[in-house]
Amino acid sequence: MRKAATNFIVDRFYGGKVLKAVAKASLSNTTIDRVREFMSENSKFFDKGEEQKLIYTEIHKRYCSLMENILEEPLRASNVTIDKFLTICANLRDESDGNVQTFIDLVLTVNDYQIFADLMINPEKQEYYFFILKSWAKHADTSKDEEEPAMKK
User: Fold this and answer.
1) Dihedral sign, CA of 17, 91, 134, 144?
2) How far apart are CA 38 and CA 33, in angstroms?
3) Is 131 exposed, middle or buried (0-12, 13-18, 19+ CB in 10 A)?
4) pLDDT of residue 113 exceeding 80
5) Helix/strand/coil percent split, the chain, to 5
């Protein structure tokens, strides 16, 4: 009962529903496959050399655009701007458990060039990144099924 009340408050007053909508869109198989395909097609342009090439920046801009398009639909459906979403993330980050905090951190670092470049250069990190996303997606499906009976009460 307490968890249901907490969830209601977080959803209603702190933007939890918006974050859930973004998580659902971000963790869908279609989205994960789109991001994996983008990285697979473009990682061949990256190398482990010290020099940062102009093409890296161009690819990163396209990646940011892809990620913004992914976030756009759930935000539009929730009638929330990106700035409001960032505020919601900041508010929820400190009030949430570790998995939610980690997901928020992941969303907030989408535009971080260094993290992106590191993923593009290192296939092992890239695979681990997708392993984490798939694990979260699987957990989100399981959590949804577990929560439904409690909501019906």
Assistant:
1) negative
2) 8
3) exposed
4) yes
5) 80, 0, 20
**Under a CB-based contact definition with an 8 Å cutoff, are residues 128 and 120 in contact?**
no
Name the residue ranges covered by the structural domains of the chain.
Answer: 2-152
Regarding the domain with residue range 2-152, which homologous superfamily does it belong to in the CATH classification? ADP-ribosylation factor-like 2-binding protein, domain (1.20.1520.10)
Task: State pLDDT tens for residues 131-143.
Answer: 988 988 887 664 5
Q: How many beta carbons lie within 10 A of that of residue 40, not counting itself? A: 11
Residue 125: left if φ>0, alpha if ψ -120 to 50, beta else—which one?
alpha
Please name the residue that has the structure tokens 């959803």: 11
What is the per-residue pLDDT across 22-38, written as a single tens digit (0 to 9) for each?
A: 888 888 999 999 999 99
